[in-house]
Amino acid sequence: MLKRIRRQETRRGEWEVDIFYAPFAIQEGEQPIFPSMLMCVDFGREMWVRR
Hints:
This protein is mostly beta strands. The protein is built from 1 helix and 4 strands; from the N terminus they run αββββ. Strands 1-4 form a two-stranded antiparallel sheet. The two termini are about 35 Å apart.
């Protein structure tokens, strides 16, 4: 997928990428596992989540 993106003529946009631990644990065996999460945000989109 990265090769396809690099071949594109126009590469516009501003992205923010972050990796962080999930706020929950997965219990497998004796020790819990804290999975990592990847978040990619395109600042060019006008999508907002409001609660």
